[in-house]
Amino acid sequence: MEHLLVVAGVLATATFATGVLLPVLARRAATDADRAAGDRIAADELSALRRGAASR
Questions:
Q1: For the whole prediction, is pTM greater than 0.85?
Q2: What angle do CA 23, 25, 30 make, to 5 degrees?
Q3: Whole-angstrom Cα distance, residue 18 to residue 15?
Q4: Is 1 helix (H, G, I), strand (E, B) or coil?
Q5: pLDDT tens, position by position, 1-54
Q6: DSSP annotation of 20
Q7: How far is Cα 50 from Cα 4, in angstroms, rounded to an integer?
Q8: Whole-angstrom Cα distance, residue 22 to residue 41?
């Protein structure tokens, strides 16, 4: 009987993780990707400004 309780607990935990934690982690990954894209854009703009200043 205890074995069934353990199995039920594992299934409940897996269901919770799938329904709640994975979307949170997915949002965090998207935020990290957006931040990295913003950093690349800023670095590109800074490089362009430096090249413009060096050509003067």
A1: no
A2: 95
A3: 5
A4: coil
A5: 889 999 999 999 888 877 877 788 888 877 888 888 888 998 998 888 888 777
A6: I
A7: 67
A8: 29
Q: Tell me which amino acid residue 30 is.
A: A
With 0-12 CB in 10 A as exposed, 13-18 as middle and 19+ as buried, what is 40? exposed
Only one residue has tokens 């009987």, namely: 1
Token digits of residue 18: 């799938």
Q: Give Cα separations from 23 to 19, 30, 39, 56 (angstroms).
A: 7, 10, 24, 50
Please tell me the distance from the alpha carbon of residue 13 to that of residue 16, in angstroms, as a whole number: 5
